[in-house]
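Changelog note: in this version the structure field was regenerated for every chain. One regenerated record is shown below for reference.
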Amino acid sequence: MDFSTFLIQSLNSVQYGLLLFLVAAGLTLIFGIMGVINLAHGSFYMMGSYLAFALSPMVAEAFGGGLISTFIIGIVIAIILGYILEWMFYSYLYERDHLQQVLMTYGLILVIEEIRSILVGDDVHGVAIPEWLSASIQLSEVMTYPVYRLFISGVCILLALAMFFVLSKTKLGMMIRAGSVNREMIQSLGVNIKFLYRIVFAAGIAIAAFAGMVAAPVSSVYPGMGQGVLIICFVIVVIGGIGSIKGALIASLLIGFIDTFGKVLLPEVAGVLVYVFMAMILLWKPSGLFKAGS
């Protein structure tokens, strides 16, 4: 592997890892703080991609184009939907056992897939890259790299920094981290834990949907696309440590490198490398790389 190929695969690894982090961060917030195994989380990633597909032409017609406008409208829709779903369904799952959570959220997957099929059909769709992001930068005399992939890495880094700032430097973040360790204590201090959970859940759904919207122009939009992402994100949550955002970031980047370079260097066994890595980490640290709340 020459240096240009190594550089391109490294950039692809970082971009893929950061994208996975956005989905895994929402999952680890919901799983680590609320204790809910949300199998439907991948469906919200899929919903984000379909929102990008459906909203792009509407926004273009109404405002004359605008990727950022599409993202903002999509995020607002995801936040509202997440808030309603938490109020209608997920708030009843906190006191239930994991089997009931799995059954309920699996049923939600089926409902979301059926609604998607009715609204947009089962065809594979694509989302166009905006003209101002469609160029490529020259890495060497013969190799270029798409600007849009750098844009994905950039917005993911900004969102990750914003997430770390909120969680580590604000009062809301302090309550979220404390709530992941001792819910009863936070409630006894006068914090409205139900409203806090609703905010965390809506934020987790919005982050997953945003990841789907950002990924839509570089990957096809197709039925069931959330299931593959969900499995790999559960692996990330387990490796990073349940409830740890820092662990989710480190694990996402590691998985991004292992998956990307595995497909290039060892394509015959690339599909199992991630799970072998997870097994090795769990043998070394059974509770994951970092503790909850870190």
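Spot check on this record: Strands lie at 136-138, 144-146. The chain has a mean pLDDT of 85.
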